[in-house]
Amino acid sequence: MLMHKEQASLLVVDIQEKLAPAVVDAAGMAARCRWLIGVAADHGLPVVFSEQYPRGLGHTLPELLAQAPDSQVVEKTHFSCVAANCLPETVLLRPQTIVCGMEAHVCVLQTVLELLELDKQVFVVADAVSSRKVSDIELGLQRMRDAGAVIVSKEMVLFECLRQAGGEHFKRMSQRYLVGEQP
């Protein structure tokens, strides 16, 4: 199954100020998520940010919010965004959800499993998730795949939303996201 920009939303799970420095390749993960959020926003996908207990863990990294400044930020104390009942209609009414964030084996995993229970088509961006240990990233991705989530890369999101070469939109997206060194 392909991602379709008219049917998908991007859910950015818990990339927060106090937890982000503790995960594997924190700077790289944040850069790849910033790239992915820009791609989603430029394609017109709704983008939603979740924050796990922001009083304790801080808020979403500002450079991520800057990529989609009109996006909604939701707070939660449940690990799963679904269990927390915090997801807006921009996510719930679309059949496809693209997910990135942290931690892959906790909040991302539980959210993805429960999105699948809601019969959503879920795409987890493997190069835009992280945890504090590599083994937890691997186990989280494997468990999500086994449950029915589709594991993708950030470039898969870009090209599946583009669908074809040519035209001004393709040219603009290529220049912004494919020229020069990318995260």
UniProtKB/TrEMBL annotation:
CDD domains: YcaC_related (cd01012). Residues 10-155 form the Isochorismatase-like domain. One of its GO terms (molecular function) is hydrolase activity. Pfam families: Isochorismatase. The keyword Calcium does not apply. The keyword Ligase does not apply. This is Hydrolase. Keywords: Hydrolase. It comes from Chromobacterium rhizoryzae.
